[in-house]
Write a structure and sequence with these properties.
It is built from twelve helices and four strands, in the order H-H-H-H-H-H-H-H-E-E-H-E-E-H-H-H. With about 260 residues, the chain is α+β, with helices and mostly antiparallel strands. It folds into two domains: about 80 residues; about 160 residues, no CATH class. Strands 1-2-3-4 form a four-stranded mixed beta sheet, with helices on one face. A hairpin with a 2-residue loop joins strand 3 and strand 4.
Length: about 260
């Protein structure tokens, strides 16, 4: 799995007053807190910030995902991953791909363009017909995320798998625990986000899984896979407006979709 998601500009120097012995002490406290039913989150957040520059260097030097998670188990939670990205990207702007974020502006057109191109669109329509009016915004949002790869000429199955089937890729992937797209669209499907063969965390909705998987590329310094590069690049550049140093021009397919959506 190719590394090198983040540019050198996103790395940090080792924190002032920290060395291998103090980092080890912080790591031990973090591990103990993780084992608690109710960890002291103020302590966790403080020590994750203190160890952040050291951890970034370890990851940039090639530390495996499994070893990172063993050493820093709070990265096994969606909140921990989001906070980690906040260390080098404006998290509040970058990762809120929700019904109040930038994705809402293209949502209707995404669903419209995907009609007839995927059997999932039919299950989306069924979910809509069975739903209460107040549930429709969430249904539309989840369906838009699921169908986004379709309009970018990529396969949903490369990002979201179903049931017990393991993903055929080491890249960040969402595994729905039920074989039912309609349940996922309705917001009733638990999912596990995997990367490099590791079950990292469980999410309650497809939207949380989607944002978590997207975040992992930055947290673990993972380059976008070719089979999902259009989708992830579209989210990064057009929806959350992250432009990294030395970023290449947008692919033609992405540009065409942006023109159709806007």
């Amino acid at each position: 799995m190719p590394r090198g998601r983040t540019s050198a500009s996103l790395t940090s120097e080792i924190g002032v007053g920290e060395d291998s012995s103090t980092i080890e002490a912080h790591v031990n406290v973090l591990k103990n807190e993780y084992l608690k039913t109710q960890p002291d989150m103020s302590t966790v957040n403080d020590l994750m910030v203190r160890t952040f520059p050291w951890r970034r260097r370890e990851i940039m030097d090639g530390m495996t995902v499994e070893d990172v998670l063993i050493k820093y188990p709070h990265l096994r939670t969606p909140a921990g991953l989001f906070n980690e990205v906040d260390g080098f990207i404006d998290h509040k702007k970058a990762l809120v791909i929700d019904s109040g974020g930038g994705f809402a502006s293209v949502l209707t057109n995404v669903v419209q363009l995907a009609k007839g191109k995927s059997p999932i669109a039919k299950q989306y329509n069924e979910a809509r017909q069975d739903a209460l009016a107040e549930d429709l915004p969430g249904i539309d949002f989840r369906a838009g995320l699921i169908l986004l790869p379709v309009i970018l000429k990529e396969k949903v199955e490369h990002f979201i798998t179903m049931g017990e089937r393991d993903p055929a890729t080491p890249y960040p992937t969402i595994r729905l625990l039920d074989n039912d797209w309609k349940m996922a669209i309705e917001g009733r499907a638990l999912n596990v986000v995997k990367v490099d063969g590791v079950d990292v965390c469980q999410c309650t909705g497809i939207e949380d899984g989607f944002i978590t998987a997207f975040s992992m590329h930055f947290v673990f310094n993972i380059a976008y896979p070719l089979h999902l590069k259009n989708t992830l690049t579209f989210l990064q550049r057009h929806i959350v407006s992250i432009v990294e140093e030395g970023e290449k021009p947008l692919p033609v397919t992405v540009l065409r979709v942006i023109n159709l959506l806007c």
